[in-house]
Amino acid sequence: MDVHRCRFVPYPQSTINVLAFSHAYVQKSQEKKVAPPRLAVGRANGDIEIWNPLNAQWHQETVIKGGVDRSIDGLVWIQDPTETIVSGANRSWIVGKSRLFSVGCTTTVTEWDLENGTPLRHASGNHGEIWCLAAQPAVGIKDERKSAERQWEGQNLVAGCTDGALVLYSTKDEDLQFGRILVRPSVKKAKIISVAFQNRNVVIAGCTDSTIRVFDIRNGSTLRTMSLGSGPKGGPKNIDVWAVRALPDGDIISGDSTGELRIWSGKTYTLTQRVKSHNQDIFTLAVSNDGSIIFSGGKDRRTVVYKQAGKVKRWVEVSHRRYHKHDVMTMASLEYKGMSVVVSGGPDASPTVVPLQQFGLDFQRSLPFLPQEAPVKGAVMGKKRLLMSFWDREIHIWELSKPHLQRPENLSEGGSSHNRKLVSKILIKGEANILSADLSSDGSILAVSTTTEIKVFHLKQRRSTDGEMGFRVSAVHTPHSFSSGARLVRFSPDKNWLCIVRTDNRIVLRRIVSSASGIKFHPYNSKLDRVDRKTPKHVILGGLGSYDRTVTQTAFSSDSRILAVSDLAGYIDTFVLLGAEDLGQASIDCEDDTISSTESSDSGSDSEEEAEKVKLTYGQYWTRNPSAASLPKLPHAVTVLSFRPTTAPLTNGNMSHTIPTRHNPNPLPHDLPHGEDRLIVITATSDIFELEVLRGSLSEWSRRNPPAKFPIIYRKVKDLAKGCFWDLSNGRERFWLYGAGWLFMFDLSRDVSPGEEDSNAPKRKRYGKTECSGAGGAVSKFQQSNGISRRMAKVEHETPNKYEDLFARQQRGNSSDDEDIVPLRQTKKAKKEIENGEESGNSEKVENGEAAENGVIGNPEPNYWRTFKYRPILGMCAYGNGEPEVAIVERPLWEADLPDKYDGDQEWDHSGV
Amino acid sequence: MSSGTVELKRKRLGPNLSEKHKSGPPIAPIFGWDAAFELPEIVPGEELVAYDMSGQPISGTGVDEWKCNGEIKEQKEETERQREEVQLYEARQQPAWNVSSSIGGRMINADPVFTQDEKFLILANRSSISVYSTSNSLLTTTLIPKVDVVKRPNARIIAYCISPTNPDHIWVAFADGAIYYINWISGEGADEFWTLSSNGCIHMTVASMVSGGRRRDVVFATELRSDKAWRITANELSLPGSKLPSASITIFTSTQMVNYLKSANEGEVLVATAEKSIMLGFLATDKYETLDKIRYEFRVFDSSAFISAIDVRCSIPHKEDEEDEVVAKRKGKKQKQKQKPKPIVDVVVGDAKGSIFVHNDLLRNLLNKERLKQESNISLLPQKLHWHRQGVQTVKWSLDGAYIISGGSETVLVLWQLDTGRHQFLPHMAATIQNVVVSPAGTSYAVQLKDNSAMILSTAELKATSNVAGIQSSVLAHEESIEVKVQRVEDEPLAHSLFQRTPATINPSDPSQLLVAVGQEHELHPIKPLALKRPYLQTFDLKNARSVGRQALTRSNITNINVAPGFGRMTEPTVTHMKLSFDGKWLATIDEWTPSEADLEHILHAGMDGIDERWRRREVCLKFWQMGQGEVWELVSRINAPHSFEDAAGAGRVLDLAADPSSTRFSTIGDDAVVRTWVTRSRKRDNVVVRGRYGTPLKNWDCHQSASMGKHGLDDNDRLQPRSVNGCVAFSEDGSILAVAAGGDNDGLLHLLDADSGTIRLSLNKMYEGHILQIDFLGQDLITLSDKVLLYDIAANEMRLSFGLTSEVTKLELSQKLEMLHLAVDPKSRTFAVATPGYAHDPKNLKTLLNLRSLLNQCSHLVVFSPKQRLPVFKQIFGTVITALLPAIGSEGFMFLDSAAEIYTCFQQGTHVVTAMAQSTSALKLEGSDNEAEDTMDISEDEDEHLGFLPGEDKKIANNPNFSFNFEDDETPVVTQQKLSEVFDIGPSFALPPMEELFYQVAGLFLGPPMTPAT
Predict the structure, then answer these.
(1) How far apart are the first and last CA of chain A?
(2) Helix (H) / strand (E) containing B859
(3) Which of residues 255-294 of A touch B (CB under 8 A)?
(4) pTM for the whole structure
(5) Which end of chain A has fewer CB atoms within 10 angstroms, the N or the C?
C-alpha cells in the first residue's frame, strides 16, 4: 500500500474560549427528568461543538459553524422547568427543554437551535459589550416542594459587560428577552469579567478593579463589595478577578490575576483564606458538585486541584499538573452516571478531560482538536491525485505526485514541496463558514455547503501559459433550491447524484447532468423521507428535542444505487435507486399517484411544490428501501458508514428496463438493485457492525463477530473512528479504519480473532475505557505519583494481613464488584502497554508499518493490524480501485501555530535559586 | 520469631577492658603486619625479610651489609639469634609508639537532638556523642560509649535520642543492636548496654508511655531478622536499680527493610517507612500492665517513590471534631461507650524524587475509608508539594503544624506555609541539608549539613546562632542512600576500586592547623566510588577539633543549579596536590579538571577521538597562595598548564609537587617528564617593585628552571591512558638536592639534581621496582616507595633498608597504588611511616570474601620505620582506609586521616600531641560525680605502666582524671575557651558577679592546674 504522508494541510486550530455542560451534575433520582448531558465547546472562530460524553466516549456530534469575525466568548445552558405528568399511578415527565445561549464580543445574546444548527433568537440591550454570562441556578430539589406556589422556576441569564453594567435577560416563555439592567455602568468603568450566582437571587461579579461585587437581582441592590486589595509590587495596581464561583455551602471562591485562589465566606462576605497556587493569573475555576474539590486553571498552564483538609477544613492544594500546552482558559465539570470529570480547554484547542473524583487515580485524556468529520477528500483526475481540504471559508486542492518518487524518510517532510502542489484555492463569498464540501471521485465537480447556500464548482484541467498544469474553476449555476444551505453534501460515486442533507435534516437528491458544455442540474429534486420512528411527543418537545435525529453520515453504495444515512440516535435509513438509466427520458415527468409511497412529514417550508410527487429522472427514481424499517437501531450514533465496494464489474445490463406502455408511459421500475449492499457501520462506541441493507439485517459476518469479540487492543482505543477505506484488490477483503490517532486493518474474509493480547490475560469484564471515570484509563500502580497506593494492608502482629482497596470506584450500573484490582494484576504485556503508553505502540509498529506500506503483510495469522504511528490524523483518503494508495493527512499541534505566550515555556529554565 | 518476651540483660563491661582498644581506631581482626609486607616463606624467626635487588631474600644482622649495587654478602642464617633479637626489640620498642584516640569524625546522618532546655545540641559521630552548647557552639562534653572493638567490629552509632521520661539521659543505639542509656550530664552509663538484636539494629526511637500507673521509656527499634526480614520491636529495658525485668515484643514484621521509625503522642502512634511503604501504627490496647500485652495495629500503604524523609505530628481532636465519630457510632452498633478519640495524625513524607506529600489526619481518614466505603477519594489523596529537584533529605513539621520545613541537595531550606501555599527559602546553605530539627520550644532549627557541620538557626529571623563544623574530608558510606534508587544521570565511577588520597598538609607555622582539600561528595560508595572533586580548602584546628575556615581553591558549583543540559552534573576541578612552604606562608596547589565523557559525546559524531579530546580539553592549574588578611589564602600566581607538551595540545598532568624544606621554593614534575622549580620574584612594574597595602613588596611566582628527564616512558601514547606512569620529586632537607624519579621503567632510575642549577648530578639505578610512587628525604637517606620500600643513604651511597610489599599490594593497579599507598617522613623523630592498603578478610567468613571489592572491607597497615633499626618501630592495622599520612609537625610522630574522617596521631610516647587537647573536654565543664571519678581513676591506673616510662612525669597529674590522657606538663596550664566562657557567660552583663571576683576566677584558671582534686 502506498502512503502519502501529508502534513502540509494548514488546517487551523481554534482556541477554546468556553466550555459548558448542559448539566454539571445529575442526581440519580433526577436522571429521568433531564436530557442526557451534552458539552458545548465554544471556540474563538465562532464554532460551537456539541459533544456527547456518552460513557466516556466523547463523541463530537455536531458542529455549529461560525462565520466571519464571530467568536464565542460565553456559553450557557439552561433547562426549562420540567413538568410532571401524573397519569394514575405512573408518573412521567416532560423534560424541560435544554437551551443553549452564547455571547460573543457584542452586546447580543444568542440562543441556538441545536436541531438545525442555526441561531434561534437574538436579544440585546442598551449596554456595553457582554463579557461574561451566567445562568440562574435551577430550583433545587429541596426548594422544589417549598416553591410550589412560586411563580416561575426557570433560569434567567445575567450578563456582565465591559462597561461595568450587569444585565438580566429573561428566558421566560421559551423566549429570550432583554430583562433589565441590574447595575448601571459605574463611573470608574470597572469591567465585569466574571459572574456567578451564589443562589437564585444573589449574583457575584468579579471586576477588574480588585473587587468582587455581590448583588441581589430582585432589586439590583449591592449587597457587598469585597476588595482584594492592591496587586503585588511591580505589577499592575488592580487585580483582575478572572473567575468567581460559589460553593454549594454558599462560600465564594475567586481566582485572580495574582494567581491566588481566595475563599470568601458566603455569610459574612469576608475573606477566609487565600492560597497561592499559580505563578500567574487564574483564568478559570471548577467545583465538584459536593463542593469538596476545586479545580483551577490559569496562564501558567497549571491545573491545580484543591481539597478541604485539616481539622478546621481549610483548603489545600492537592497537586498541580500541566495538561495543556498553553493557557488554561476554561473549565467545566460533569458528574453523571459514574462519570466524574472536569474538561478544560485553551488555545491549544484540545479539550482535556481530567478525572474529578478519581483525580490522580485516572489519567487525563486529551480529546482530538480536529473535527470528527474528516474535512478531506481525495479524487483521481486522469492520472492526477487530488487532495481537497476545507476550513473556515476556504477550500484548498493539492495535487500529489506519484508516491514512488518519495523515499520513506521524505514522506514526513512537508517542506519538500516537489511532491505536492497547491493547484487551487477557493474562497467562498459570504459570512458563513463551510459546513460540508465534497469532490466528485473524478475531481471534476466540487460541491460546497454553508448554512445559507450550496455552491457547485466545475474543475477543469488546463495548461497555463508557463506550461504548468493548472485548474480552471468555474461556478456552476445552481437551482434556486440550493440557496437554502445544507448540512451535508455528498456525490454518488458515479457523480450522477448529489445528496444534500438540509439543515433541517431533510434529504434531497439531485441528478447531475454533465455534458461537454458543462454541468447542469436536473430540474427535479428527489426528496427522500426517513422512516418515522414514532418518537413520543413529549420527548420531541422537551430536552434536546429531535436533536438526536440529526443526520451526520451518508454513504452511497459503489454502484450509486443505494444511499444510507444515519443520525445521532443510531437509526439508519436506506434508499434505493430504481430503474435503469435512460437518458432519453430526460425531463419527462411521471405523475403516477399510485406509486407515491413517500409520506411527507414536513410542513412544507420548501418553496418548491413538486415535492409531493414521485418523478422519474432519466427513468430512475429514488425511494425508500422496502426493508429500511427492519434495520436495527444501533445502540449509539454512527461515526462511520461505508458500503463495501463491489468487486464485480459494474453492469447495468442485468437491470431490466421497464418498457413504457401507453397506459403507463413512464412505468416505475420496481427492481431493487443487485449490487453489493453490505454496509459497514461503526458506532460511537467503536463497535463494528455489518448490515445487509436490502435484507434489512446484520450480515453473517457481523453475527459471527459481535463487538465483544474484537481484539482488546482495538476496544481499548479511545479516539473514535473517523473514516475508513477498503482494499479489495487481489481478492482481499481488507477494511481499514482510522481515528485521530490510530489506523486499524481488519480482514473481513475471516473471523476476528481476539488477538494475542487476550489469550493469556485473566478474564476481565471491564476494560480500559469502560471502567474509568470518563477521562483516561486508570493509572497503573507503577505510575502513580499521588503519594498513596490503591491498596492498604491492615497488619496486626501475628494475624494475617488484610488488604483493603483504598480507592474503590463508584459503582456504575451493571458493573460487578471484584474488578477494582484489575489494574494491579494485568498481564505483563498489557501492563507494559499501559506503562509505555502509545510510545511502545509506536516503536513496535514502525517496522510493521513499513512492511504494510510496502504491501507485504505476509503473515496471515491475526486478521487485524494496527499502527499508532500517524497522529493526529485529520483525515485519510484512498485513491484507486486496485491496491489502495492512501493519503494520510496529519495535523500535529506543534506545526499549528499556538498564540505567543507571554511567559516562557518552562519557568525553571530561567529562574535561579 | 517468637513474640514472647525476651529477657534482656544489660551487660556491664568490666574494668579490664583493654585500654588500648577503648579509644583507638577500630582494629581489624587480622593478623598484623604480615598482611602488608610480604613473607616469602614462613620460616620461624624470619618474619621480616629484606630483599636484594634480584629479589632474593637476604638476611643480615645489620643494615650496613645491604648495598645497593648488589654486592651482598651471603650470610648464614642465624635464626635463633634473630628471633631473640626480634623479641627483644619488640619488647623494648613497641610501647614507645602509640596511637592516640581519634578526633574529628563525621556526624552520622541522624537528627540532631536538642536538650529540653535548648541549652545544648547533641550530635553524634560513628563512635561518640558530642554535646555542644547552643549559646557559643563549643563542645561541652563528649560521651564515648565503651565498645569492645575486637568483639564488635561493626559497632557504630545509628540513632540516639533523649529519654522522654528522664531528660538527663540519652538512648544510643548501635548498628550491632546494642543500646546504651547514658546520663549525658555525668556520662554515667557509658559502659553498659543491652543487646536488642544480634543481627543488627537499623533505627530506634523512644516513647514515654504510661500504663499500669507507671511511666517508662519504651524503646522501639527496627531490627534485622535472621531470615532476611525486618521487624519492629517494642522494648522495655530494665534500668539500673529497677527490679522490673526487661521485656521485648515484636509488633511488626516486614519483608522490606524498615529504615525509619518515629513515635508520636507518647507512643500511641508509630510511623515507620520501608522503601516505598509507609506503616502507620496505633496502639490497639488501652490496658497493658506489662509490655508483652501491648498491641499495635498497622496500616501499610505505598507512596509514589522511595521515601527519604518522614515526619509525623499528633494532636488531640477538639470536641467538634469528634462529631463524625459520633455519627459513625450512631450509624453502627452502639456497642462501645465513649472511646478514646483517635488523635489527628498528620504525616509528611518526602521522597527520593523530590516530592513532598502531606497527609492530613491520615489515621482517621484511613479508618473512615475502611468503615464507610463511599467516601470521596480525594480526601485520602495527600497534598503534593513539589519544589525540590532531587530527593528530599529531610522534612519536618513546625510545632503548630502550619509550616513544613524541608531541605535537600539544593542547599536551600524551604519553609512551606501550608495554609496559603506560599513558600519561603533560605538559600546558600553551603552543602546538602541532611537533617533539620525544630527545637522543643520552636525557637530555633538545628540544621545538619552534609559537609559535616551543623548549625542552629533562629526561627524568627533565620539567622545562624551557632555553628559546629568538623573535618569535611570524604568518608565511606555505610549504607546506600535511598536516593541511589532514583534513576539519574550518573557520574562515571573510577575505573578501579580505590579511595582517593586526600591532599592535606599541616601548617608549619601553626602545627595545630591542618589544611585539607575537601569537596562536596562526602560519602563514597564502597563498591563503585566516584572520582572525588575537591575544590575547597578546609582549615581544621586540631587543638579544638573544629573547622576554622573553608575557602574555594577552584571554581565550584555548590549553590548553582548543578545540572548540565544532558542532565549530568557539572563537575568541578579537583585539587590533586597541596604543599605549604617551609615557613607556612605560601601554599601551592595543583588542580585538574577533565570534561566528562558524556560532555564530549557530541564531538564523537565528527569522527574525533573521544579520549584524545578529553585530554586535550583538560585543564591543569598550579596556583600559589599567600596567607592574607583575615586568615584567608589569597591567590598570588596562577600558572595554567605548567607542564604542557610542546608537540601536542592539552595540559599535561602535574605528577608531583614538592616543597623545599629550607627555602621558599617548590618543584613539580609533570607528564612531560620535565622538572620545574618555582620561586618567587618581586613583582615589578616599570622596574619598580610593586608594593601592597602595607608596603610589603608583592611577589610573583615564576618558573626558575626546568630540567627534562627525557622520555622515560612518559610516552605520548601513554598519556591517553589515565595514570600509566608516575613521576616523583623531593627536596633534600637542606634544599640542595632534588631527587627526581620519572617513568614506569623497571630499571628504577632515579636522578639527583642540583636544586639550584638543575643539572643532574647523579643518576642511580634500581632505586625502585615497578612504578615509583613516592620519594622523600630523611636527612641523608632517600626513601622511595614503589613495590618496595627502599632506604638509600646518599652520603654513604648504600642501600640501608629494603622491604618488599606483599603481592596483595603490588598486584594492584597503578592508580590504586598511587592513591592508597602513603609515605611520610618525620624529620623530628627521624622516622618514616608507610601506609598500605589491605583487605580485612577472614577466610572463615565467606561473605566478606565475596564482597572483596568493597572498600568497606579494606583496611590499612601503618608501619613506622626508623632508619637506624632493621625492624619497624611500630606497626598496626586499622579497619579503615588511611587517606592522608602526614608528619605531625608540632610533635614527633605522624598524623593520619582515615576514611571515617577521623584523625589519629601516631606518636612516640612522651611527646606532646596536638590533638590530645581536643580530647580533654569532657571533664572540664561538668563536675563529675564520684562514681565517674572512680571510673576514670581506674583507667588512669591502667595507664600507669605506660606512664611509668616517662621521665619526670608527675604521678599526681596522671592521676588527675582531667588529664588522664594528655601528657601535659604542669607548667603550662591550658585554659580553653570553654573555661573562660564558663566564667563570663553566666548571664547578662548586669547579672555578672563583681569584677574582682571575675578576676580571681580568671587568674585561678591560669595559675594552677585547674580543678585538681586535692590528693
Answers:
(1) 56
(2) strand B858-865
(3) 273-277, 290, 292-293
(4) 0.81
(5) C
